[in-house]
Specification:
With 304 residues, the protein is mainly alpha-helical. The protein folds into two domains: 31 residues, no CATH class; 215 residues, MetI-like (MetI-like fold, Orthogonal Bundle). It is built from 15 helices and no strands.
Amino acid sequence: MSGQSQSPAGMSGAPSSPWRRAGHPRKSLAQRIAAELTKHLLLLPLTLLFLFPWFWMITTSLKTPDQILRFPPQWIPNPITFDAYPDAIFDASMLKYGANTLLLCVINVIGAVLSNTVVAYSFARIQWPGRDVMFIGVLATMMLPYQVVMIPLYIIFAKLNWVNTYLPLTVPTFFAAPFFVFLLRQFMRTIPEDLSDAARIDGANELRALRDVFMPLIRPALAVVALFEFIGNWNAFLQPLIYLSDEAKYTISLGLMNLRMHYGLSNYAVIMAAAFLSLLPIAILFFFTQRTFIEGIALTGLKG
């Protein structure tokens, strides 16, 4: 018998990685760098495309009227002037319009979170006759565009003497929305049934189980509902246009329309300054809440 023993196949030399054994050679550092550079070079033109309207809006708000009307366009304002911003905030009443819009957003966010959470919990956790059929009916209403129900709703609110008030813009949010109900229901169905059973064994009713057990666990989904509702009401134009006729009650979207009609081509800097100020709160809000927003979207719908 020879003094040199044969080593097993897996024992000789450096152990081969599972990645190599699977037929996937490990990429070199240069290949990984090249792949990242290619990805970023593809994303860069799209990023510039989306940022260009912001660039044009901001630079136009900092120009004098002569620079705005100059052709070919002057990309960088020289000299830079901030005179349009005080005019947009005070003379154009954008501060008042912003306060009106913020009031509507806060009320509607509260109404959307409360109503949709209760309705979604009933569809997700409470067994009652016809529940699934009713849920399909609720989802079916999402296929109806707003233009179909616009005139009947206006007639109803007119008979209630709610026209030119904030009631048509706030009261419906306290009766749940199909999309938010679906979103929260799917999120709730990912929570184990054992938590609901434990709460019932401890003597908690359904409302207490919803408040103490489910509400803390569905915060990411509630944040998504709140963000969607806030952004939707901040940017809403058609409904305020239909129901509001008093200029003192205008929202920020109607204020921008009114500003455009008032200034026309005479002072684009004020219009652009007002548009930038109207978009700034949404950009700041999403910047600070994007992690919760993405988490809520990603975790929703993992269970059918």
